[in-house]
Write a structure and sequence with these properties.
The protein has 270 residues and is of the alpha/beta class. Helix content is 48%, strand content 17%. α1 crosses α6 (216-227), α2 packs parallel to α3 (91-119) and α3 packs parallel to α4. The structure holds NADP nicotinamide-adenine-dinucleotide phosphate (NAP).
């Protein structure tokens, strides 16, 4: 089974790629930092890939095809997180997050789909997040990008099912894997920001939750098992019990009450 995976140089993408390879799958691993490091590695065959650059995506596809032929599966893990107050993101920061997290996935799917349709089968795993299901303070741009993938995936699933293609949204809670290199900050980090005090509390809670998060290799193993089944599940929510509880409460509680609980959790006030 041939799997293309994006964002395979760090975090969940790297752990997943390694687990896919350990499970015996043929992995083509893409990331920008593989430039100049092309070749077989523990995460599969490394190829340079920038999901914000269509020419780079085309080169990745061409090279992957020449190496192993069409993919049986595509896993889109590349992502960035820019923390900040909704009010204070610049246009550039919004565009960067949406381009990487949403368009980066959708445009890779557009390239894999003709190959999968021709084969009459295929599996597409799109990394969203628990933030694809609920919002968290100071993750507005990221949450918007992950909600975008959730809606897009629902459309994609219905359109591609007749071609034998299954679509899964992977919704991780906090995991220990994420690199601080990809945790950027909007101007809210400056003490002059009116949000500064709350921002500090929320950011330290977010960092604490990631440091104490789930084991990324378990997620990688679960995705490897799911990819080897006939069809992917529609969603894989992978996280600790309290994060599953948050998703459930978000569905059940009145919106204002849920927001107040989450505000208390992140900022210690309602
Ligand atoms: N870690 C968590 O707790 C967590 C929780 C929920 C969801 N997620 C999701 O899981 C995925 C991985 O996140 P992470 O935090 O585990 O990893 P991470 O350590 O933040 O790594 C991000 C990855 O994305 C790649 N990337 C960023 N911009 C790219 C671009 N323009 N083109 C190609 N690749 C790009 C990076 O590679 P290069 O810089 O080498 O290109 C790197 O491999 C993301 O989609 C994230 O939203 C993570």
């Amino acid at each position: 089974m041939i799997v293309w995976i994006t964002g395979a140089s760090s975090g969940l993408g790297l752990h997943t790629a390694r687990q896919l390879k350990l499970a015996g799958l043929t992995v083509v691993a893409g990331a920008r930092s593989f430039e100049g490091r092309e070749g077989e590695g523990e995460e599969g065959y490394r190829l340079p890939l920038d999901v914000k650059d269509e020419a780079s995506m085309d080169r990745f596809v061409e090279r992957a095809l020449s190496l192993y032929g069409p993919p049986d599966a595509l896993c889109c893990c590349a992502g960035v997180l820019t923390l900040g107050a909704c009010e204070e993101y610049t246009r550039r920061e919004f565009v960067d997050v949406l381009e990487t997290n949403f368009l980066g996935e959708a445009l890779m799917v557009s390239r894999a789909l003709p190959l999968m349709r021709k084969a009459g089968r295929g599996k597409i795993a799109l990394f969203t997040s628990i933030n694809g299901l609920l919002g968290v303070p100071y993750q507005g741009a990221y949450t918007a990008s992950k909600h975008a993938i959730e809606g897009y995936a629902e459309c994609l699933r219905m359109e591609t099912a007749p071609f034998g293609i299954s679509v899964c949204v992977v919704e991780p809670g906090d995991h220990q894997s994420g690199s601080q290199k990809y945790r950027r900050h909007a101007r809210t980090k400056d003490p002059e920001s009116p949000y500064y005090a709350d921002y500090q509390k929320a950011v330290s809670q977010i960092a604490h939750d990631e440091e104490n998060g789930s084991d990324p290799d378990i997620l990688g193993k679960r995705l490897a098992r799911a990819l080897q089944r006939k069809r992917l599940p529609a969603r894989l929510i992978i996280g600790k019990a309290d994060q599953h509880l948050a998703v459930l409460l978000h569905r059940l509680l009145p919106a204002r009450l849920f927001s107040r609980l989450l505000s208390f959790y992140y900022m210690r006030h309602f």
